[in-house]
User: Which sequence fits this backbone?
């Protein structure tokens, strides 16, 4: 479809293809905000389900973040349309304080946590979202601007397991660490996010609604220049004129996902080749350091990250910090090769809750021990303290030693060197 051609509505035959493979599931949860994309998803799924003799139960869920005065009304609009289409509807609300920074990221985390809760209650293992080709392109640009690697630039897949940070539903408690935290994130793990509209441009969804004379809401935050995604969205027409349109960016993501699958396969093979033993929960991971260093950098980097997450499971593991750790391990190995005599170079670092130790021919990754408690500020019993808060008096010998040190420091500042004692 060229820019000059009008967008065509999505046909019933296309809808059948979009939702293929979902007819045998017991229930589907539809994430519906009331905007054009999710409204089109609601309409298309309703038409698809009506054409089936047997099929899944449908539940539409609207998350009211409470960030705009119009959000409650928009949830009511989505509810009325769902009922008109014969689909059950539920509104879930974000209750509690909202962060002053990172608002969109926090809202997204809360949204998925609430959707996961609703899916669990409904017995649904699939959450359908209305991400489009345009969303995919914006995600590529956003991650490119943040310096993401191949994994990030692969953007969104049609299906992904739902993972959200623990406590995302508004709790201020920090996420748990270790395998317990990983299991909590995977606790939604049987739930899949499905994006059936990912290959369709937004214009075709709007054309579908216009053809059926179905109203929808517009969220003004989608054009709010305070948000990075909105600013990048404004750049899309300019990039399209240079040939970098949404379709090209989505094609880049698709090719990177293909490369991702190849790299991940290589990482799995490498894990077996460099590990001294099978990885088990609660046990340190032992790697042959020489074999590890000889791996291709990207494979070694991912293997290291996978081992850290297996050992500790803290969220998140930043790529930049992982790269810095890997570079230090490589440099230490090179230094060991340059200086074969004496002690081996040793690296001992913590990252994302894991302790990583390079010593001799072995690289060990294990869960870091609990941090030592900070020293108490209570006064020591062996050193009485003046109740007025004044410092205790120095004995004569201590006063003399302090005076000598201060005199030496002053001489250094004045002359740039310490005064040498005269030879006797």
Assistant:
């Amino acid at each position: 479809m060229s820019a000059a051609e009008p967008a065509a509505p999505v046909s019933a035959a296309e809808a059948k293809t979009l939702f293929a493979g979902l007819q045998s599931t017991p229930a589907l949860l539809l994430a519906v905000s009331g905007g054009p994309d999710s409204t089109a998803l609601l309409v298309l799924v309703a038409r698809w389900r009506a054409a089936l003799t047997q099929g899944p139960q449908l539940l539409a869920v609207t998350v009211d973040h409470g960030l705009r005065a119009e959000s409650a009304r928009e949830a009511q609009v989505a509810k009325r349309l769902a009922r008109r289409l014969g689909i059950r509807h539920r509104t879930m609300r974000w209750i509690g304080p909202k962060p002053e920074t990172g608002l969109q990221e926090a809202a997204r985390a809360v949204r998925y946590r609430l959707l996961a809760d609703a899916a669990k209650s409904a017995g649904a293992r699939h959450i359908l979202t209305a991400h489009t080709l345009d969303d995919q392109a914006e995600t590529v640009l956003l991650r490119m601007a943040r310096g993401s690697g191949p994994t990030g630039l692969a953007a969104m897949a049609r299906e992904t397991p739902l993972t959200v940070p623990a406590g995302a539903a508004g709790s201020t408690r920090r996420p748990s660490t270790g395998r317990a935290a990983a299991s909590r994130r995977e606790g939604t793990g049987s739930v899949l996010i499905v994006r059936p509209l990912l290959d369709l441009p937004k214009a075709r969804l709007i054309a579908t609604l216009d053809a059926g004379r179905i109203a929808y809401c517009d969220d003004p935050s989608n054009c709010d220049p305070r948000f990075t995604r909105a600013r990048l969205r404004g750049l899309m027409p300019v990039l399209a004129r240079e040939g970098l349109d949404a379709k090209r960016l989505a094609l880049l993501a698709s090719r990177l996902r293909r490369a991702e699958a190849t790299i991940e396969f290589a990482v799995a093979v490498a894990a077996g080749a460099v590990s001294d033993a099978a990885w088990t929960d609660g046990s340190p991971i032992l790697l042959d350091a020489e074999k590890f260093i000889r791996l291709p950098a990207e494979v070694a980097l991912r293997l290291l990250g996978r081992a850290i997450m297996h050992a500790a499971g803290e969220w998140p593991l930043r790529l930049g910090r992982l790269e810095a750790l890997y570079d230090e391990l490589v440099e230490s190995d090179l230094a060991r090769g340059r200086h074969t005599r004496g002690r081996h170079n040793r690296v001992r670092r913590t990252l994302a809750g894991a302790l990583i130790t390079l010593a001799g021919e072995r690289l060990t990754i294990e869960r870091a021990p609990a941090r030592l408690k900070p020293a108490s500020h209570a006064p020591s019993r062996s050193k009485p303290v003046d109740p007025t808060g004044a410092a205790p008096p120095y004995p004569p010998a201590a006063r003399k030693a302090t005076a000598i040190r201060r005199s030496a420091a002053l001489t250094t500042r004045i002359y740039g060197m310490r005064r040498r004692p005269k030879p006797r």
Q: What stands out?
A: Residues 275-367 form one domain. Strands lie at 27-31, 57-64, 88-93, 126-128, 159-161, 192-194, 285-288, 346-351, 354-359, 362-367.
